[in-house]
Design goal:
Number of helices: 0
Distance between the termini: 31 Å
Number of strands: 10
Number of domains: 1
Strand order of the largest sheet: 1-4-9-6-7
Largest sheet: 5 strands, mixed
Order of helices and strands: EEEEEEEEEE
CATH topology: Hypothetical Protein Tm1070, Chain: A
Radius of gyration: 15 Å
Length: 124
């Protein structure tokens, strides 16, 4: 089975610096999606930069994330594998270069080891 797509609602383009006023309810909220620990997740890399947020919502157990790279023009890879996120903590990863990260299908691959890991993608 293929990877689970990060829903469009969890790929946010933040408002600012001069949003239309008044800012409507929920317009600044982040939407999170639980990791698919079996199949992994993906999102489409369009033009631009992204911040990948991951959080562990479990009360006591640390879980991990993996961000999967692809060989660049020099055949280098740089997977971030089994990065541990403590219970109740969050991490962020800036993706400002797509070389070495955009898979052959144009997707970015990420995996959480448990559904207690949640992802939110910020498009800059």
């Amino acid at each position: 089975m293929g990877r689970t797509a990060i829903a469009a609602a969890s790929i946010i383009t933040p408002l600012g610096p001069y949003p239309t006023l008044p800012v409507s309810a929920l317009a600044l909220d982040l939407t999170w999606q639980a990791a698919d620990a079996v199949n992994g997740n993906q999102f489409s890399l369009g033009q631009g930069k992204y911040i990948i947020h991951a959080r562990n919502v479990h009360a006591t157990t640390p879980y991990t994330i993996t961000l999967t790279s692809i060989a660049d023009e020099r055949k280098r890879t740089g997977d971030i594998t089994t990065y541990s996120i403590a219970a109740g903590k969050q991490v962020a990863f800036l993706l400002d270069q797509q070389v070495g990260w955009a898979q052959t299908d144009g997707m970015f691959y990420l995996t959480g080891s448990n559904a207690s890991i949640e992802f939110c993608i910020i498009r800059l």
